[in-house]
Amino acid sequence: MRIPPLYRKPSWQRFFAGAAIGGAISWCIFLFIFGTWQEKHTMLIREQKETIADLKNDIKIWQEEYKAMNKRNIEQLTVQTISVKITNWEKYNLDSFSIFQVEDSVKEDIGMMTAKDLETVYKGKDLIKKIIENKIVKLNGKSYKLEVKEMIIYTTLSIQLEIHFEK
To answer: Which of 28, 74, 80, 119 has its CA 20 to 30 A from that of 43?
Structure first.
């Protein structure tokens, strides 16, 4: 068996030469396109890695800030101070020291609400009101009752009272 003598025919020689050159050119084009795509995708992956690193850093910062804010909110959502103010003390010609003593005694009576969360204080607002209104105050030999006019419950429990003669 022998190989057919195609090497003598120039048309077959051109065909094989063209196939070899075409194969080499297509291989070069393939390498160029593949290299370009590979470079583009490598850049994309690098950018995505940087973005992921930045986002992880941002998440870490946000979590730390969130924890700090939660600590501050826990402190803020409790009653820190109690403010008591009697509004009509001039009507009965009472001195400011007596009024100060009455306000201070009311603060002592409801002092248990300090450091309680706002929900507990809100649920106990009727109890606070009854504690204050059932209190009889003796000033200058006369008996007075207190009446709650306004109560604001926030980090400062602010209560405005009016004083009246006991009946």
So the answer is: 28
